[in-house]
Structures are given as structure tokens and as C-alpha cells.
Specification:
The protein is globular. It has a single domain, classed as Rossmann fold, CATH 3.40.50. It has 6 helices and 5 strands. A 5-stranded parallel beta sheet has the order 2-1-3-4-5, sandwiched between helices. It is α/β, with parallel strands linked by helices.
Length: 189
């Protein structure tokens, strides 16, 4: 089972990254073959809402997103981690999701099914310094739309409030355990 972790945090080694690593360790402990993408390391433009895109869900912009599309297509499980910024996802995460507009168009406008793995699952990890639950719900609503677009069933979430400074989550072993278990659950049939 292929598991793709997508880190939408601008910080390597930050709280979202740490929790994603724990989730991937959990997935690996249950037999998952894991890989991680750091969105902030990619070179890609925002969605240009191109006219005349291919009906098969392909994107005509040739940048690092081409590789992301391939990895998402073959993954059985996609776990996205993002901090909460201004009440929603990080800009990096949102920009990556916006680039899946070509897939959304193909699925919902042209009826193209695509080559995504059957039975794909998706899970979401989000971290916030604050404690406003509606911010997590805002972020999750976008992630759920993303998962629907890639034909992934939303199978789990981990929302962590009151986590601000880099590495603070390491002081919360119960959250680390929850992330590990989220990864385990994601790969179980």
C-alpha cells in the first residue's frame, strides 16, 4: 500500500511536519510504503485557470506539480498536514490544492474518471496556536473537497490546538501517539 504524506507547512521540522512523520511511521508499521512531499520545496505556480485544458485532467503548466499529480494518482492513502493560517490552510497547501482544478474539471465537468487508485483514502492533520474549532473546520472543508476530487474517502483527522512554537508538539506525547494511530488506521483495510 502506497502512502503519500504531503506537508503544507513552510517549516521543516515544524509541528505539522513532526505529526506527519509520526503518521507515516504508523502507516509504515502497518505495512505502508511511505513517501513525503514538502510543498514548500516545490517550484510551481498558482493555478492559472487556463483556457482549453485537456479533458483528461492534465495540467498544461509544466512545473513540479506534474510529479505531484503522478504521486497522488498512484497513492492508496494521502495524508495532508497543514498549520492553520488566518483561519484556514497554509498558502502552500491551498496553492497545491488549487492546482488540482484541472482534475476537478475533468471529474465533474467532462466526466473523466482518471487513473486514480481504487479505494483511495485520505486523512488530514492540522495544527493551530489558537483554539478556534471553526478554523479547523474551514481547513477540513477544503481538504474534503480535495479528497473528493482525487476520489479519496476522508477517513480521519487530527486537530491540534494550542501548539505554537516549533517543536512544541514534542511536549505532547498523546498527540504524537494519535498521529501514529491515524497513520496505522489509514492503511488498514
Amino acid at each position: 500500500m502506497k502512502v503519500l504524506g504531503i506537508n503544507g507547512s513552510p517549516r521543516k521540522g515544524g509541528n505539522a511536519d513532526i505529526l506527519l512523520e509520526e503518521a507515516l511511521k504508523g502507516a509504515a508499521s502497518s505495512g505502508g510504503e511511505c513517501e513525503k512531499i514538502m510543498i514548500n520545496d516545490l517550484v510551481f505556480s498558482a493555478c492559472q485557470e487556463c483556457e482549453g485544458p485537456p479533458d483528461n485532467g492534465g495540467c498544461i503548466v509544466d512545473d513540479d506539480m506534474q510529479n505531484v499529480y503522478k504521486k497522488v494518482d498512484v497513492a492508496n492513502v494521502v495524508i495532508v498536514a497543514s498549520p492553520v493560517f488566518f483561519g484556514s490552510l497554509s498558502a502552500q497547501t491551498k496553492m497545491m490544492i488549487d492546482r488540482f482544478q484541472c482534475r476537478w474539471r475533468a471529474k465533474y465537468i467532462t466526466g473523466f474518471i482518471g487513473s486514480t487508485s481504487p479505494g483511495k483514502k485520505g486523512a488530514f492533520i492540522s495544527v493551530s496556536a489558537g483554539d478556534k474549532k471553526e478554523y479547523f473546520h474551514n481547513a477540513a472543508s477544503i481538504i474534503k473537497n480535495f479528497f473528493a476530487t482525487i476520489s479519496a474517502v476522508y477517513t480521519g483527522e487530527l486537530f491540534c490546538s494550542g501548539i505554537e512554537d516549533k517543536g512544541d508538539v514534542l511536549k505532547r506525547p498523546e498527540i504524537l501517539t494519535a498521529a501514529f494511530k491515524l497513520g496505522q488506521k489509514a492503511v488498514k483495510k
